[in-house]
Amino acid sequence: MTSMTDGTAIREPSFRDSVNLMFNRAVALMDLSPGLEEKIRVCNATYTVRFGVRLRGQIHTFTGYRSVHSEHMEPVKGGIRYAMNVNQDEVEALAALMTFKCALVETPFGGSKGGLCIDPRAWEEHELERITRRFAYELAKRDLINPSQNVPAPDMGTGEREMAWIADQYRRMNTTDINANACVTGKPLHAGGIAGRVEATGRGVQYALREFFRHPKDVAEAGLSGKLDGKRIIVQGLGNVGYHAASFLRSEDGAKIIGIIERDGALYDERGLDVEAVAAWIKKYGGVSDFPDATHSKDGAAVLESDCDILIPAALEGVINLNNVTRIKANLIIEAANGPITAGADEYLREKGVIVIPDMYANAGGVTVSYFEWVKNLSHIRFGRMQRRQEEARHQLVVDELERLDKYLGDAWTMTPDFKTKYLRGADELELVRSGLDDTMRTAYQSMREVWHSREDVTDLRVAAYLVSIGRVAASYRAMGL
Ligand SMILES: NC(=O)c1ccc[n+]([C@@H]2O[C@H](COP(=O)([O-])OP(=O)(O)OC[C@H]3O[C@@H](n4cnc5c(N)ncnc54)[C@H](O)[C@@H]3O)[C@@H](O)[C@H]2O)c1
Predict the structure, then answer these.
(1) CB 69 within 8 A of CB 76
(2) How far is the CA of 211 from the centre of ligand 1 (A)?
(3) Where would you tag: which of 2, 210, 288, 354 has the fewest CB atoms within 10 A of its CB?
(4) Same domain membership, residue 251 and residue 185
(5) Would you say residue 370 lies in a domain?
(6) Ligand 1 contacts CB of residue 238 (under 6 A)
(7) How many angstroms separate the alpha carbon of residue 315 from the centre of ligand 1?
(8) For the domain that residue 296 is a member of, what is the CATH number?
(9) Using CB atoms within 10 A of its CB, is residue 427 exposed (0-12), middle (13-18) or buried (19+)?
(10) Is 149 close to ligand 1, i.e. is its CB under 6 Å away?
(11) From the centroid of its chain, how far is CA 473?
(12) Whose CA is nearest to atom 30 of ligand 1?
């Protein structure tokens, strides 16, 4: 590892190369043929599009990408990111991570990712709609948006609103496609979405941490003990993923969010920050500056390096790198963002004994619930409707029995209306989504953990995650025949 002696930043491999280095570390422990190894490593295709939109009296040209990493399963799946620094290397790295993420949580998709070089905050809503529709048109006419080929979702800088525009654009271009709604996930509930998708990635981060803390041996490896209750957490990025993770961990697990890092600086309070109040402040004023009741620091980096039990980077890639990794104090890092730790920094942390819960697992809640949404759209039936009917029938039998018992016991026991309602309720969509997500996060952790603890040559969860997912992708290719 190079050291920084003259104050200049250490140059590191690109995001794509960093993902490749992590991939290489795993395949070195596998018995894959060199040809298959290369097939799984490379990105199948990346489409670059430049399109013009007349806005504010002149034509503006935008550059966008859609990368398809692996089509061992179709459709391929992955978000669309809106940010100024989107580039081919980044979308290819993110598409590769999607391949391995989908394999790890067993959603039947290949990996893809897209991005548009744009600062979404620089445009009005109606302008963003025109830009998004044009981008969607460019991708859809090449089947890079298509329910059976390529299904995007939200990522940094995009959300439900953009997904609704994309779905509508696709529908207009494919008026006879009865499955058109399944061309994109992360749509609003009233435009073909599914309950629980908005918060799914943050919810998945919470479920991942809960599962980690169910294993005292793993918790001890991170130099911690006990449960999530009272753990001191620092979060970088209070956007979709960071906000929901922080909010749930604080309100449902009793964790203390002692630091929040945003674009314009950071907030710190050992007593724990009110996440909802901070989020409301950011919405109103566009940043964390001047938030009352907390120490404000202009230097977000200093808070990232502060002492805490759990660090949750939930913003950008490469934020923990060779320039700052020696100062990172957290013993447990959960990668809510994609690629927040560079390959070099990862090596340093591993040697130091820091436990990293890797991105491909930690933020897989989004794609898991996207899968439920896609299935819901294709089945054309509200998720949970059939199950609810069955549940209701089953519960009705119980209630009938209880009513008989009620009559038999007379004054000795009376069934309250509340009790009866509870039994009759059955499961609704949100409950099904949550339990499906929880089950997925638990199962995927078990599969990584088993590899981590059972093989001498596997020293960390990241390599374990890669071993599980590459093994599954390889099995698909072998079964399919190349
Ligand atoms: N949205 C999803 O469902 C989803 C799913 C899987 C992975 N991810 C990953 O999670 C990460 C965040 O995505 P998101 O959807 O929450 O994006 P988002 O745009 O909703 O939020 C990103 C947040 O990070 C903040 N931010 C930007 N630059 C920053 C900086 N330099 N320092 C501190 N904060 C900064 C932004 O102000 C914003 O609050 C990305 O890596 C993304 O790929 C998102």
Answers:
(1) yes
(2) 23
(3) 2
(4) no
(5) no
(6) yes
(7) 4
(8) 3.40.50.720
(9) middle
(10) no
(11) 20
(12) 263
Q: Which pLDDT score, from 0 to 100, does residue 5 have?
A: 47
Does residue 284 sit in the same domain as residue 410?
no
Return the active site residues. Answer: 113
Stated as kind and residue range, the H or E segment containing 79 is strand 76-83
CB 139 near ligand 1, within 6 Å: no
Same domain, 163 and 267: no
Pocket probe for ligand 1: among 241, 372, 433, the residue whose CB has the most ligand atoms within 8 Å is: 241
Residues 198 and 224: their CA atoms lie apart, in Å, by: 31
User: Is the Cβ atom of 156 under 6 angstroms away from ligand 1?
Assistant: yes
Which pLDDT score, from 0 to 100, does residue 401 have? 73
Which position has the token pair 């934020």? Answer: 319
**Which residue owns the Cα nearest ligand 1 atom 5?**
366
Q: Mean pLDDT across the stretch 326-344?
A: 98
Domain count, the chain: 3
Domain extent for 256: 223-353
Q: Which of 298, 330, 353 is the last residue of a domain?
A: 353
What is the DSSP secondary-structure string of 219-264?
A: HHHTT--S-STT-EEEEE--SHHHHHHHHHHHHHH--EEEEEEETT
CA of 238 to the centre of ligand 1 (A): 7
Asked if residue 180 and residue 90 are part of one domain, the reply reads yes
Is the pTM here over 0.90, yes or no?
A: yes
Split at pLDDT 50, 70, 90, the class of 482 is confident
pLDDT tens for each residue of 398-442: 777 777 766 776 665 555 666 555 544 445 788 889 999 999 999
**Ligand 1 site, residue 76, Cβ cutoff 6 A:** no
Same domain, 346 and 401: no
Mean pLDDT score, 263-288: 97
The verdict on 172 and 306 lying in the same domain is no
CATH of the domain at 59: 3.40.50.10860
In a domain, 374, yes or no: no
Q: Same domain for 71 and 158?
A: yes
Q: What is the pLDDT of residues 99-119, one digit of tens each?
A: 999 999 999 999 999 999 999
Judge contact between 164 and 184, C-beta under 8 A: no
Nearest residue (by CA) to ligand 1, atom 3, is 366
Same domain, 90 and 187: yes
Spatial CA neighbour of 29 closest among 391, 466, 479, 475: 466
For the segment 156-212, what is each residue's pLDDT rounded down to a tens digit? Answer: 999 999 999 999 999 999 999 999 999 999 999 999 999 999 999 999 999 999 999
Last residue of a domain, one of 191, 215, 244: 191
Q: Is residue 3 part of a domain?
A: no
**Alpha carbon distance, N-terminus to C-terminus of the chain:** 39
User: What atom in ligand 1 is closest to the CA of residue 338?
Assistant: 41
